[in-house]
Amino acid sequence: MGRSVLTAASAAAVLVFLAACGSGSTPSTSVSGESAASMSQAVVEDGHVLPGTHLLRPHQVIGSGLSGQIAKPSENLVYHNGQVMLFPAIGLVYWGFNRKNADPDNEIPYLNSFLLHLRDSYPLNVVTQYYEISGGHKYYIPNYPAMSIAFWYDDVNALPSPHPTDKDVQQEALRAASHFNFQLPGADNLIIVAIPHGVPMNYAACAYHGRVDGFTYTNLPYQPDFGAGCGAYSVNPGPIGILDAVTETTIHEVAESMTDPLFFGWYGPGGEIGDKCQQFAANVTIHGATFPVQPLWSNETSDCRY
Question: What is the pTM of this model?
Fold first, then answer.
């Protein structure tokens, strides 16, 4: 039996859309045999490698121009016979933002607005060329206006002190998945766990995505705390520039989660769809609002595309 996709109305979800997709056998997504390439991109927490994670390294944004970046087709992303997100739904949980000075840079309204504008946007159209094969058929990632985007402000479950570990983030992601209840196959659920200002991290990464119980989650620390190394002021000067990293990092993690949710999807030389282009960023107008974003890797053109 192939993957079928079906949603039902949920109090937490917005604009829930009904869909179904083809028949055939679903590729194996066993966590055994983790590739050397994926392990090299894994998060190191307290000196221990965390299999089943993929990090966004600190980086320097050198500009928005993409000229001269066309690569050889051999450098394109490669399909590894696993799942992609055939009916993406994004649940964003703000964990512990109830404490004083948790959001001094107003990340919450900015990030909420960005996610709501991102669906059915041309920067995200790049992901629609990627697919999974099931039952001998190709099923492509969609980019549609009815993609479910939901938010939850979790002020009940306390943040661990001094900082949450990956296991803690996984548990919060599981709680959030239950709260949102998208009623979708596991790989189609993307849970983003946003961490408030001032919480120290115990790994060297701007953010990362991982897998737990068959779905993908992202650990999104408070990006303004990370400064220029994660994209702050890479596009915009002045006070608004502190938020540049918020949207650049988010589109990076969302696109990678869609194309490689369980780490048997699409990656190749240089990493996943966002890794090959993280040194670029530019302001892009999306449905009437302007946000700084990084481009994504396109196999169709063998370069980075906004």
Answer: 0.86
